[in-house]
């Protein structure tokens, strides 16, 4: 599996966590994806991390 394929897999997992309302976990997974992402993907990842961190701080979604 290539690096970009690994990134896409981890991004899919992060998105699934978001979908389930597990925002704290999603932010952690997005952060891990930074190591595998292309430069073009980094702004999107940072946006998702910020959103998830804020959502977790506001107790949105489901508790882990």
Q: Could you characterize what this model shows?
A:
With 64 residues, the protein is mainly α. It has one domain. Helix content is 70%, strand content 0%. The chain is built from 3 helices and no strands. Helix 1 packs antiparallel against helix 2. The longest helix is centred in the N-terminal third of the chain and has 18 residues, at 3-20. The protein is elongated and about 35 Å long. This is ANR family transcriptional regulator. InterPro entries: ANR_neg_reg.
SSE order and pairing:
Elements: H1 3-20, H2 23-33, H3 42-57
Helix pairs in contact: 1-2, 2-3
Question: What descriptive keywords fit this protein?
Answer:
64 residues, mainly alpha, 3 helices, 70% helix, 0% strand, elongated, ANR_neg_reg, ANR family transcriptional regulator
